[in-house]
Specification:
mainly alpha; 6 helices; about 180 residues; Four Helix Bundle (Hemerythrin (Met), subunit A); two-stranded antiparallel ribbon; about 55% helix
């Protein structure tokens, strides 16, 4: 049973790292104007999505096992606005801090911790539920980041996975035995 729990924790961290990588690669492809641009009045800019994800990561993963995942000092509503004093660098610094907090906390967990109950907004969650909640939240918002970056780059976009029309070549390469040298 510990092997399964260990694998779950390892895979959860690896999955979050993949999501972060997709987001980072996408964010690196847009300029500052695109980073702060919203498609319309009801849409979030990349900067807002990054700011919100950062706030969520810091709130959920700080003192994960000992305090509610919605920290009293978090101002979630402010995550959906960019102040005139905020720059891309300041938003991205908070992004880095949020992910560092999540990875440090996740990677410090032991298989036995998966039996623990934590709280998010006062609601009890098994630790597995809380981790899965974070995985789905990250997937949701990273998808938005990739979509927006791809939109802004249009015909200059280079695929982050399998380029269109190249699935067969990709599958053949994956099925081929490794080249030994």
């Amino acid at each position: 049973m510990d092997a399964l729990r260990t694998e779950y924790l390892r895979d959860s961290a690896a999955t979050l790292r993949k999501y972060k990588s997709l987001a980072d690669q996408s964010l690196a492809r847009v300029n500052d104007a695109q980073f702060f641009a919203a498609l319309d009045a009801e849409s979030n800019s990349l900067a807002v999505v990054v700011k919100h994800m950062s706030g969520n990561l810091l709130s959920r993963w700080t003192d994960l096992l000992t305090s509610d995942g919605e920290k009293p000092g978090r101002d979630r509503d402010s995550e959906f606005a960019i102040a005139a004093t905020e720059s891309r660098d300041s938003v991205m610094a908070r992004w880095g801090a949020g992910w560092a907090c999540a990875f440090a906390s996740l990677e410090s967990l032991t298989p036995a911790d998966l039996d623990r109950t934590i709280h998010i907004r006062g609601e009890p969650h098994s630790l597995v539920q809380a981790i899965n909640r974070q995985l789905t939240h990250a997937a949701y918002h990273v998808g938005q980041i990739v979509f927006l970056a791809k939109h802004f780059q249009a015909d200059r976009w280079e695929s982050l996975s399998i380029p269109r029309g190249q699935s067969q070549q990709f599958n053949a390469a994956m099925a081929a035995p490794p080249v030994r040298g």
